[in-house]
Specification:
By secondary structure, the chain is α/β, with parallel strands linked by helices. Helix content is about 35%, strand content about 20%. An eight-stranded mixed β-sheet has the order 1-2-4-3-5-6-7-8, with helices on both faces. α1 links the parallel β3 and β4. The protein is globular, with a radius of gyration of 16 Å. The chain starts with a strand and ends with a helix.
Length: about 230
């Protein structure tokens, strides 16, 4: 079952979200963190797939403070430019606070079970920040941007984190990828996977960016990771 819900934020407001429920009791919950394109069809499909695997999935509309209900298509150039503009306007610290609110909602809605997070693009960066700043039980980031600037927070990562790195990422250059490895390869809670020849967005559900073989490999690793750490 799927539906739109509203969550209470930590600052006393309400935030829209998409919720997908499994048949029967969920084995755990997962917060799905959007790309810069909002909670669009691809993000909803990510939630639906997690629900099919037995998880309660929640995708908070993190751009709600800018404009609720934004859905953009990266294959349409004006919409891509709009998404890039939104990323520049977006308050990432407040975004993590809103993700924390979604984690609390998911934990309560799942009957106190473990809660994971998975994010893509901007959401991949936010997944890293979530791992460092909240009590989330396990996190996954796909082609996270700007992680080299967040390495000062790595000491706060107390629960498992997996990052999928696109080898030819147009938004994460080779120097940044090297910094991620240098800073995180020896972290006991962090696992990095590299995808040679793949570009940013390779695991999107729909559209021109998807690279099917790499997407399937990354998603299989993510599924095994959540099975291990969330149950």
């Amino acid at each position: 079952m799927t539906c739109n819900v509203t969550l209470d934020t930590l600052d006393g407001q309400t935030m829209p979200a998409y919720r997908a429920e499994p048949e029967g009791t969920p084995k755990a919950a997962i917060v799905v963190i959007q790309e810069i394109f909002g909670v669009n069809g691809g993000i909803r499909r990510k939630c639906d797939t997690l629900a099919e695997a037995g998880y309660l999935a929640i995708a908070p509309d993190l751009f709600w403070r800018l404009e609720p209900g934004i859905e953009l298509d990266p294959d349409i150039e004006p919409q891509m430019q709009r998404a890039l503009s939104l990323m520049g306007e977006f308050d990432q610290d407040r975004g993590v606070s809103d993700i924390e609110a979604a984690i609390r909602y998911a934990r309560d809605a799942s009957g106190g079970r473990k809660v994971g997070a998975v994010g893509y693009c901007l959401g991949g960066r936010l997944a890293y920040m979530t791992a460092a700043r909240t009590d989330v039980d396990a996190s996954v980031g796909y082609y996270a941007v700007g992680v080299d600037g967040l390495l000062g927070e790595k000491h706060a990562i107390a629960h498992p984190l997996m990052l999928h790195i696109a080898g030819e990422d147009g938004f994460v250059d080779k120097e940044t990828q090297a910094s991620m490895h240098e800073g995180l390869d020896d972290h006991p809670k962090v696992t990095l996977h590299d995808y040679a020849g793949e570009d940013h967005g390779f695991a999107t559900e729909f559209g021109e960016r998807r690279s099917d073989a790499a997407a399937r490999q990354a998603d299989e690793r993510t599924a095994a990771f959540f099975t291990e750490h969330l149950g």
